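Friendly challenge for the regulars: who can give me the structure tokens for this chain first? No prize, just bragging rights.
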Amino acid sequence: VQLQASGGGLVQAGGSLRPSCAASERTFSNYAMGWFRQAPGKEREFVAAINWGGYSSYYADSVKGRFTISRDNAKKTVYLQMNNLKPEDTAVYYCATARRFGVSSLSEYDYWGQGTQVTVSS
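First reply, four minutes later:
Bragging rights claimed.
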């Protein structure tokens, strides 16, 4: 599975961005999907996940209430709507596939996109 992330950028604090991640695999709908992020000098961390059908999702506490993950299986794409962005959200954001929903450990995710940079200025 090849994943192509896009839609990052530079935004002021309080602003919004909506990165997306397009998959090459026609069986995209078989996978749960997740978003992770990695800030400079820090470990990659879980942000959000969504199940194969798009009707269940969960979030890291740090983004709960501000970020929304969604997917369009017809377009083989997963999205991350990010609102009320904060400088601490600055990171490279990665999408990844998982064999099962409800996991936040990196080891549970198999295929990764190349990442898209999100920078939030204060």
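The mean pLDDT is 96. The radius of gyration is 13 Å. Your move, everyone else.
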